[in-house]
Specification:
The protein has about 210 residues and is α+β, with helices and mostly antiparallel strands. It has seven helices and six strands.
Length: about 210
Amino acid sequence: MNWAIEQQDLIGIAIGLLCGSMIGLEREYNNKSAGFRTIVLICLGSTIFTIVSSHGMGSDDRIAANIITGIGFIGAGVIFKDRLSVLGLTTAAVIWTVAGIGMLAGIGSHALALVTTMVTLVVLAVFHRVEGLLEKLHVSKLVHIHFSGVDLFQLHEVENAFRADQVKFRRKAVGKRHGKLFVILEITGNKARVAKANEVLVRMAFIEEFYYN
């Protein structure tokens, strides 16, 4: 029985805990599904398994390799489908990245683990604003419209209203479901134009339902 604790391992655990805490705080602040404790434990767990792997003999290197597979299962748990869109991909990517940071801490690359943590925080904080800016300049969405009847004139009325408000659109599908007309339109433009398109659809009484993806 070996009760000796190497200082390098303790430092690695401390760095893994610190890096996981920094990213976890950001996730908790933004109320994400993988919050503070989850991110910390993922980073700490990856650090511990990597340390275990470093103390193994030859084939025990497989422990570190299998961390990637295990994290894949956790990441899949936070991804879910909402209508035709997929949510949680960013959170899954954060989990994947945090596991890599934990492995860096476990192998003793403490400076690189800290630098990678800071880069991750910059991506999460700054790039989100870049996405918001791009959304103001250009948005492309699919809108699914369900009409109250099968009169194609109602579709023409929607399209004419879009043209009047200078909203760009393109038909993707036209069909009939449960005896009623449904259409899928691709709307492109800046955020203000897309908001106008939404107002157009809300005002029209013959539209029973519409949603975006």
